[in-house]
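[worker-b] picked up task from shared queue
[worker-b] task type: protein-ligand structure
[worker-b] ligand name resolved to zinc ion; SMILES cross-checked against name lookup, match
[worker-b] sequence length check passed
[worker-b] input payload:
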Amino acid sequence: MLIRKSQLELVAPGSDILYKIPSKYDFSLHEDTTELFANLMFERMRELGGMGLAANQVGINTQFFTMGVDILRMDIFNPKILDVEGEAITEEGCLTYPGIFLQLKRPLTIHVEFSNVKNETINTRLTGLTARIFLHEYDHLNGITFKEKVSVLKWSLANKKLKNVREKLKKEIRQKYIVDTYKEMANASIDTGGV
Ligand SMILES: [Zn+2]
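[worker-b] inference finished, payload out:
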């Protein structure tokens, strides 16, 4: 098991590992390193600015994901979804596809079972954003990214939107550069004006 955070790099979109079902996490093989691994994954997720990160997203073939915001945190090993209820449409993003946001319909409430970092079985209900993140990461552990949840058309529109945002940003940066340069030149000519 990898235990250096620097090795937890996001794999490129389209990488094979994102489309395979990872192996079950075997606690007996990692007795001393499970907590460290979970901590590093959580830290990495926060550095990347996400609310969830699955092991296969950073190239590790195991059934694990971490999720949370600030001190609220859940480390999920070998998850199962036992039941789902309701429906909600919410915009979501994915660290594998930075800047792309998709409106997705998913269950509102889920009944799940998983092992926590101490290898205790947790059986609980999750709802709202917590359920949403769990479902997104659970998909990763089933070899599905959110790209596969939408039509080709919807995906290309989301990409186009991102391209437009990037273009706008580029234009703004260029504009700012022109204004700054102009100011500098104006100042320079004032400076030399009296000579
Ligand atoms: Zn994702």
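[worker-b] attaching auto-annotations
[worker-b] The CA atoms of residues 6 and 44 lie 9 Å apart.
[worker-b] releasing lock
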